[in-house]
Structure formats: C-alpha cells, structure tokens
Amino acid sequence: MPNTSARKHVLLIGTGGTIASEVTEGGLAPELTTEQLLAHIPAISSICAVDCVQLLNLDSTNITPGHWLQMAHCIQERYGQYDGFVLTHGTDTMAYTAAALSYLIQGSPKPVVLTGAQKPIGFDSTDSKTNLMDAFRCASEDLPGVSIVFNSKVIPGTRAKKTRSKSFQAFSSINYPYLGILRDGVLLRYIRQDCGKAPVFYDRLNTRVALLKLVPGMGREAADFLLERNDGLIIESFGVGGLPEFGGFYHCVDEAMSAGKTVVLTTQVENEGSDVGVYHVGHALKNKLGVLEAYDMTTEAVVAKLMWILGRTRDRKEVERLFYTPVAKDILWPVE
Ligand code: ASP
Fold first, then answer.
1. Number of domains composing the chain
2. Rounded to an integer, what is the distance from CA 22 to the centroid of its chain?
C-alpha cells in the first residue's frame, strides 16, 4: 500500500555508473552497493524512508535495451509499495535509459527519477551527494513521470541529452524547458507532466533499430548494410534534414520502405529540430517516399520510441501514427 503518512517511501534502484564507482587499477569502475551509496547521505532520513534494490552495477556504456526492460519490470513489480523511485545510473547513456523508461512506463502518477554524477560519491569534490539528495527530494514530491534530476535541474526523460562530458552541468533539456529546478533543497516545479491514475507498462522492444550519422560524401553502402540487418533506420542528417541527391540514397530508402522498413530522418543539429520539407534535398523523401521525421525530438528519444513502436507493430500507418503521437512531452512540433 502507498504510504499515506507525511514521510514518503522511496525505492532506490542501483544500476552503477560513476556515482557508485571506485578507483581501480584499470580505471573507475562501479563497485559500491546502493546501501553504501546511502551511507554517504545520512540526512536522507529527514526526507524519506528508503529501500534498496541492487539491480545492476555497470558502467552505463554496458547498458542494453534488455536492461531497460529489467528496470521497467523492477518498478512495475513494486509500483504499489512505494511513493516514488530513484534510479542511480551512469551519465553516459542515462538519456537513452530515461527516454526508454518514458515509453515503457507511460502516464505514471508517481515520480521515476534518474540521477548519477560526474564524480564518484567517495571523492572529496563530488556532485554525487547533491544529485542523490535532490533525486530523493523529487521522488518524494508530486512530480509525475520519468525525469532526470541532475545539477539542480529536472529534465523530462524524453528531452535529456548529455551535452558536457566533464562538468557538473552534464545534461541539457533539448527543445523543452526544465520541469523544475532545485534551490536550497526545495523543488520549484514549473511544469507537471500529464499522468493517468495508474501507469501503463510495456514489456517489449524491437532492438533491430540502427542509427546512421551522415558525413559529407557518404554513399548508400552504410545505409544498405544497416537496413538489411534492421527493421528501422534513423538517419542523422544535416540542418533541417535531407539526403545527398547523388550516391543512391534515395533508391536505397525507396527500396527499404517498399520492403516494409521504417526510415526516420533527424538532424545532427542539437537544437530546434528537423523540417524535412523545406529544401529540395528533403522534400521528396517526405512527400513521395513517406520517410518519417523527428521534428523536435532528441535522437535518444527517437531511438527508444522506434524500438518501442516496432516492438508493437510493423504496420506502416500505425507506426506513423504512434511515432507522431506525443508521449511524455517528447514531440511538440505541429504535425499536419
Ligand atoms: N562512464 C560512466 C557511466 O556512464 C560515466 C558516468 O557515470 O558519469 O557509467
């Protein structure tokens, strides 16, 4: 039963990352347990009661979609027992996990908060303790849905991107405002994510989704290779979006679409998103070939959304409908 007393009951799910890392001969590696992490923040008892689950202890470079399903399942199994959930996670792929959990756990009225750190919790100078305390504060508040809490910012799970590899301000919220900020340990909530009475959990992902970053002069070979082996291909193109008109890309995409594959065009530009119809290099892709475009979604969200959608259906119309249907604030572009 959810806790109705003032003190909230939060589940801490450990998955590894720098926050739990120690210095080893071979470099930093996640070794601390969730209980050891908690021991670094004794003041947590004034915020909430915490139970721990050590789900994984991995550098997030080693996290796979199978682990995303494990995380969602772990929360689903214990959803009724807690008021909120904190996942500690490496920063390198945290934005992918946050996006994936946003599709696997939809409409959650309870907070599902991811956090981590740029410096291990045992270091003298570290962001671990502040981030962890802030994550628990947020998990004890009325903050529905999946979010990343990092460096005093609350970012929607579908909008996060790691934009700095070393500084404490590691994440940006792309094409969307922060859900809130933390000031002196108090959550100032700007936006409340939509939620239902209970979340809808999903338990399937199609991992046959690939991402290709274009470079000038690239021919169709790499796209052919990836399309042969996958059900969906996301092409990170240039500017508002398009494909080179020489080198056979159009034929390659045309053939793949006829074979029932999904092709999504997105952009390498971090802010403001795609608008594929604007230039000749993109116009026909959208209007004749039926390629989907990411608009203002992050690449991380597109990867996770496509895995979620293709895990449900391969029907072209349904794939398109689901792709353009907003989930957890992932897409805002006015879709015609
Ligand atoms: N390599 C680490 C990881 O992603 C980096 C970090 O956590 O900041 O697990």
1. 2
2. 26
Catalytic residue annotation: 18
Residues 269 and 175 reside in one and the same domain: no
What is the full per-residue pLDDT of the chain (336 aa) written as tens digits?
Answer: 555 557 999 999 999 999 999 999 999 999 999 999 999 999 999 999 999 999 999 999 999 999 999 999 999 999 999 999 999 999 999 999 999 999 999 999 999 999 999 999 999 999 999 999 999 999 999 999 999 999 999 999 999 999 999 999 999 999 999 999 999 999 999 999 999 999 999 999 999 999 999 999 999 999 999 999 999 999 999 999 999 998 899 999 999 999 999 999 999 999 999 999 999 999 989 888 989 999 999 999 999 999 999 999 999 999 999 999 999 999 996 654
Measured distance CA(35)–CA(52) in Å, rounded? 7
Total residues found in the chain within this entry: 336
- Domain boundary, last residue among 201, 219, 243: 201
Among positive and negative, which fits the CA dihedral 159, 313, 317, 198? negative
Domain residues for the domain of 241 are: 209-324
Range list of H helices, the chain: 34-39, 65-78, 94-104, 128-139, 221-229, 249-258, 280-287, 299-310, 316-324
Same domain, 185 and 315: no
Which residues form the pocket of ligand 1, taking CB atoms under 6 Å from any ligand atom? Answer: 16-18, 59-61, 90-92, 116, 118
Task: Please report the atom of ligand 1 found closest to the CA of residue 58.
Answer: 9
CATH number at residue 213: 3.40.50.40
89 & 180 share domain: yes
Is residue 219 a part of any domain in this protein?
yes
